[in-house]
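> forwarded from #structure-qc
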């Protein structure tokens, strides 16, 4: 059996490492020094674990906040995408309506050009004689008849 040597020097209340505390618990010869080493070990453990728990809580809070921000960001991004898709659809609908209106105007312009520059005649009122001027009116319709012709009405 190996003989154990005990250290009978007092264990002072200075800042010791965990290794020094463990050695004191194993080798101090007086009970009060062993108890002091145990107490210092527990205090050191409490300080260290308290700091670790604080750090862990901060990391957890940051992680939770980052997860929440990412969820909000994804939801916000999805909302923005949906909003942009709706706006694009409305713009496409407007473009289609404008194109239809433009096509209608082009067709009406062709009919008016046919009427104005074709073989049709238009009566114009002579504005030189204020009271005795011949009263005449011309109505030009830009809608086609069933046979495709354009009708004009002249009232004198």
């Amino acid at each position: 059996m190996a003989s154990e040597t005990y250290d009978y020097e007092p264990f002072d209340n200075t800042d010791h490492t965990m290794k020094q505390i463990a050695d004191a618990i194993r080798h101090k010869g007086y009970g009060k020094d062993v108890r002091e080493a145990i107490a210092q070990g527990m205090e050191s453990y409490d300080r260290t674990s308290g700091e670790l728990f604080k750090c862990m809580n901060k990391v957890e809070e940051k992680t939770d906040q980052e997860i929440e921000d990412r969820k909000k960001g994804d939801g916000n991004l999805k909302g923005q995408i949906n909003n942009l898709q709706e706006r694009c659809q409305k713009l496409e609908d407007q473009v289609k309506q404008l194109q239809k209106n433009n096509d209608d105007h082009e067709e009406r312009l062709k009919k008016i050009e046919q009427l104005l520059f074709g073989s049709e005649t238009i009566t114009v009122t002579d504005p030189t004689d204020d009271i005795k001027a011949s009263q005449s009116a011309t109505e030009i319709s830009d809608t086609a008849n069933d046979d495709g012709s354009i009708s004009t009405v002249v009232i004198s």
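QC bot note: The longest strand covers residues 137-144. The chain has two helices and two strands.
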